[in-house]
Target: Transposase
Amino acid sequence: MLTGYRFRLYPTKAQQQILLRWIGCQRLIYNAKVQEDRYYRAFQRRFVGTAGMTIPVDQEYARFISEETAFLREVPSQVLRNGTVRFRQAYQRFFQKRGGRPKLKKKSGRQAVWLTSELFQFIPLTDKATGEVNGYQLHVGTTKFPVGMIPYVAHRPHAVPASIYIAVEGGQWWLSFAADDSTVAIPGNGADVATERIADDLRHLSAEQLTERTLGGDRGVAKPLMTSDGHIFDLQPVQKARIAKHRRQRQKWQRRAARRKKGSKNQQKAYRKVARYQRYEKNVRQDYAHQTSHRLVVNNAYDLYVFEDLKIAHMTKRPKAKKDVQGRFLPNGRQAKAALHRAILSSAWGEVVAFTRYKALRRGKLVITVPPQSSSQECAVCTFTSPDNRRSQAEFVCQRCGHRDNADHNAACVIAKRGIHTLLSGIPLTKEHKRMRIFRKLGPERSEVTPGEIRVRRLPPMAEPQGSQNQEPPGAIPETPASAS
Ligand SMILES: [Zn+2]
Model:
């Protein structure tokens, strides 16, 4: 299975200088591409039917090197080329509806450079006694632009990847890449296939067996996660106390930074402190999510894990501003909502499910999500649903059958039942993938287009299955017309 790896990297001061320049140059090319694209699209909107005008989504970057940007010659050409490739890939994701149109990359926050295999080398370190490879040494750079060996800490064995990212965030350097993990049985790129296969296996179990093998999880604000077997997963009290302390420090330094002279060394120092305090909370949250998901999947009693399908991005959206008739702003409960958002985000709801999903798959287990509607008001025994069932925040008493339970535990059981129902209904659990759009350019890359594709394109528009032309988003890059070939 293709697995992501992220290791700490320790470049020297001199190496950091070089890498920062590479990062900056790649970003410059990427942003130049984005701006060029915006320019062309604005032009196209104004002059409808500008025949023959195509937006250059290519790998050329020479036009961006001028007298003012002569420094671009001081980095390997592959670094610049990779900037154009990243832009192209972002555009392809946009056409597959997997993301938005490429945006300008900012100079703040995480900064990364994408390196392809010409720019780095993993030199295997072999054990002298056994002759086995027990690690690698990472060398970065080309003969003309050497960076040298950069130490990194591989906390787990990995294969050699085809490309890597080197990133810096808050003063820490990271090496990240995707490589095939041969220890995992799932063949590469087969997560969806594996999901459906495991689901089919589970469908052969009887209802009672399935109920026994299923664990439901209710995510809440007071208790981040309660499972249907009665376990509560929460942060440790000391972690909560430290997070609160770091939050206060972060606010203090944020205020200080705002008062300091813009762009000054002292302001930068203050912002570095802000980043450090912020990082603590992020690390604790991620650690909690990893530990919780691990403890869930190593439990041999369960094969199916069910969670609610919570739309966390929607739930933590800023509330809409309220205005009175004169257009003055009214209170909209933003402060109160912000506190809830913080609680939701700091209990790592999304991470727990995402991590459980991939860890379960590695063990041949399954995670499914179910609609969350009124799961807290439904009786887990007789399915009677009423707001009256909920006596208080903690207590659940069914108004029909008298079933009495802890409210979160009851909800976890309801969620588990819904999961079994979803599984047995036979609906495919993996979403159908959006249709890939052939997105190629005429010219030197013509050879990439297979004869089959050319034939399909040459069919008259009527015969095309659900013509891709009218599905095209407005202002998009026009598909290569058949006549041009
Ligand atoms: Zn009941």
In short: Confidence is low (pLDDT under 50) at residues 434-485. The pocket of zinc ion is lined by residues 379, 381-382, 384, 398, 400-401, 403 (CB under 6 Å).
